[in-house]
Amino acid sequence: MNSVQQRLVNQLMVREREGTLRFLPKTLNGIDFYSNDYLGFARNVELQERLHDLLRQYPHSVKGATGSRLISGNSVITMEIEEFIAKEHGVDAALLLPSGFVGNLSLFSVLPQKGDTILLDEKIHRSVIDGCRLSPAKRWKFKHNNLNHLEELIQRSSGQIWIGVESLYSMDGDFAPLSELVRLAHKYSAALIVDEAHAIGTFGLGLLNKFGLQNQVFASLVTYGKAMGHSGAAILGSKVLIEYLINYASAFIYSTALSDFHALAIKESYLFLKNNKLIINGLMGNVDYFNSLIISDELHRDSPIKPIKFKDLKKLQQANETLLERGFLNCGIKAPTVREGEERIRICLHAFNSKEEINLLGDILKEIMHE
Asked: How many domains does the chain have?
């Protein structure tokens, strides 16, 4: 084994000793309390039938895009659906992308310039951090949802200030104080960028739209691989922003485009959401029911994401195995995804979970937490 291979093996062995070695899980059957399919769109038979009808209507749309958007991968269908998405969200323009990760790379790698300052919530998604690493701007983190700390850092910043947050945080299940962040950004002429990956669908068109703030932020990102049941993402903002990204964002420029069918499927999910708003009520009913079980006072009541934290990795592993043995699909989240000492099982509630399933889950969690 050569030295490079040995170095990789040594680093993997460190993870194994720490109990944080990752591996691809097998597909399991069981009760889903771990996927991001909050509304059940990925498994919804009616939506699947509508997609089959779309394919019959547009049989050639299933072919690959054949290239990036700037070469052979653009199409009238994709551009029309971007206009549709922008209109739905009440913004000037939208740009479709292969994934939310590509979206955040596109935004944070090219918008902040040398001499600028990027201020990120300390619990922002890794894709934002990786995007910032490609930028020449300096980067600081502020304490999670701490507006006072953010303002202190703003006052010490130089150049154009960029603020990055999630509207609904994927690991903690809590919410950004969006109205206050908008006011603070306006006060200092900072550019606020909001990742709505876990809020789109779960809260209709997202929390910015819910609070009427979609035109008071510099940009936002919505993704379609969670509550919307597909994959891909869209950046929302001004026409100038989208034109700039088309010209400067390497992650967009050099990525193969989505197929037309993919774009059509995204539009269909929007239409399905609009016509089936009661599904969101079903999700929120399950959130309320889970709250009534009083698993932990630390959980955020309005959120479908319920992290159950463990300070001991062995206890986390035991809890994970207990749930799996009893037929509950779940995921243990370990460092470095979360801080050491904050490892957790992340419970995701869905519109399709039954009250009986939630009751049984609650009983098992109480049993685990009081061992």
From this structure: 2
